[in-house]
User: What shape does this take?
Amino acid sequence: MIPTIIVHGGAKTITEDKVAANNAGCTAAAEAGWAVLISGGTAAEAVEAAIRVLEADPTFNASLGATLNNDGEVEMDAAMMEGSLSWGAVAAVQGIRHPISVARKIMDEKPRLLVARGAERFAAENGAELCKKEDLIADEQWQQWQEDQKVIDRPNTVGCVALDASGVLAAGTSTGGTTNQQQGRVGDTAVVGSGLYADNKLGACSTTGDGESIIPVVLAKTAIDFLTGERHPDEAAQMAIEALKSKVKGEAGCILVDRQGRVGWAYNSSHMACAYMTEGQDKVAVFTQK
Assistant: This one.
């Protein structure tokens, strides 16, 4: 199999002054995941490594730098899934620096979705990196929340999809939700089939966008189903976005890797920062528009 990784920084509007930061962040994430793959690591390990980079970068809406809810707090969701149909997810968690790592721990132990205090307790008992919940509030987001400013370059979910040398696929997602969301809201990010999906027989997908639009059309699973018949991931991704547009209102994007290691992505927002790496490339390819 051809090791491959692709990441996205969210389907959104990227203002001119944030293009470089989005490109740099996605490039660094793809490089981190690629380093895992070429050293013989698993797809899940690569996805975790890549998303941890995005979670630590205040450019993106995940962990540090995430949007604030209506209580002025950071509340996060994350999930991971392998192509063997193993999965794990957390939702509405606080004080966890890397929710994606907790989702992976859950996946490796027993497939389930843990929320709020139950998820936080699991994180603490399993050695996750904890912090004061206030430590994840970035200055820019705090000022915007206090002044009730319109947020442009902030939503949405970040994600990653990888294929390892053994032919195993994995997908991951992480988010701080939507700006000023109601405390306790859970979007598509932690929902298998909507925010992410992986099937070793077809491919893997991570989505981003308006969760309330993505969930009813089961966007990630829809995109994977479009890979049947050896359809290219680019075409499958576009078909999935067109299917969403035909049924509901809202912005969304998705990234795909098929079992052959081919990549594809599509979105109906203004931008979606993406970066990918596979064999034969001498450096990461990165885009904010397509």
